[in-house]
Design brief:
Number of strands: 8
Number of domains: 2
CATH superfamily of the largest domain: Response regulator
Largest sheet: 5 strands, parallel
CATH topology of the largest domain: Rossmann fold
CATH class of the largest domain: Alpha Beta
CATH architecture of the largest domain: 3-Layer(aba) Sandwich
Distance between the termini: 29 Å
Order of helices and strands: EHEHEHEHEHHHHEHHEEH
Structural class: alpha/beta
Number of helices: 11
């Protein structure tokens, strides 16, 4: 299955499909394309959160409940954390092993619909269409819709500028490295650092296509990569989204954060807009360590 990057998306998506099975994603995306619903897909929670952070116009997320590492419920909790009230996409969940307990738990998460696999085109179209309508109504009430077009254009401009900067940084880095006798002392700019974080994440995604997700489990490193990426792109990081990216439960995430904080690499603090939610950030020491490591690659 061919994945589309944030910068390559020509049409602003309004639906996001999340499933670890590429064949299921192809089928779902094909069904929605027949209904003229622009959509994109993700094979895990981390990729899904990237799409949502880069495309605030996404109105509905269709997510499989059973995925390796972190399940659909963990992703739903992370979406509730990163999305503001009134701008939150509606959720449609699906599962090939849907039982009463799972259905009840899903409804408690305020999902729009619960679908059983395999999903017919008519059922999928109906659920997604209802979710889109409700999401639009909620955004109209909150005044969010008026700002979406300008926000999307601003994001596209940022991505174009970032692409030009990365190309320029890459050229400068190449020239500087050619005459350097001490490559370990090269100082990375933010643009170069972001490029290398993206390369590491891309390699991890490629590895997951060929090996079980828990074979190379390294939650602390996954958390540091997510924190570095979000810092460089200006996105807030929440404990729940770190759990999704690291593919471990929230309790395990907290234990790793305890260790990272003892080492002085990360810090936790309440969200200024909602003190019930906890944000996480790299400390100056953590950011410097990541920059030095990536410069050594």
């Amino acid at each position: 299955m061919n994945t589309t990057s944030l910068a390559e998306s020509a049409v602003a998506p309004i639906a996001l499909l999340v499933d670890d099975d590429p064949d299921v994603l192809d089928e779902l995306q094909g069904s929605l394309s027949l209904s003229d619903i622009p959509c994109v897909s993700a094979r895990d929670g981390r990729e899904a959160l990237r799409w949502l952070q880069g495309h605030p116009g996404i109105l509905v997320v269709v997510v499989d409940l059973r995925m390796p590492g972190m399940d659909g419920f963990a992703l739903i909790r992370a979406i509730h954390d990163i999305a503001e009230d009134g701008a939150r996409p509606r959720i449609v969940v699906m599962s090939g092993h849907l039982d009463a307990d799972a259905a009840v738990t899903a409804l408690r998460h305020d999902v729009e619909d619960v679908l059983s696999k395999p999903v017919s085109r008519e059922v999928l179209h109906g659920a997604v269409t209802r979710a889109i309508c409700r999401a639009r109504e909620e955004r109209e009430r909150s005044g969010f819709v008026d700002n979406v077009s300008s926000a999307m254009e601003h994001l596209r401009k940022q991505m174009r500028d970032m692409d030009r900067q990365l190309k320029a940084f890459g050229s400068t880095s190449h020239r500087r490295g050619a005459g350097s006798t001490q490559p370990d002392e090269v100082e990375l700019s933010d643009g170069e650092m972001l490029e290398r974080v993206g390369e590491v994440l891309a390699l991890q995604r490629r590895r997951l296509q060929h090996f079980p997700s828990d074979l190379f489990s390294d939650p602390a490193w996954d958390m540091l990569l997510d924190l570095a990426h979000n810092h460089l792109t200006g996105h807030a990081t929440y404990v729940s989204s770190l759990a999704v990216g690291a593919r471990v439960p929230l309790t395990t995430t907290s234990r790793y954060l305890d260790t990272l904080e003892r080492l002085g690499l990360t810090t936790r603090y309440p969200d200024p807009g909602d003190r019930r939610r906890m944000r996480v950030a790299l400390t100056d020491k953590g950011l410097a360590s990541m920059r030095a490591y990536l410069a050594s690659l």
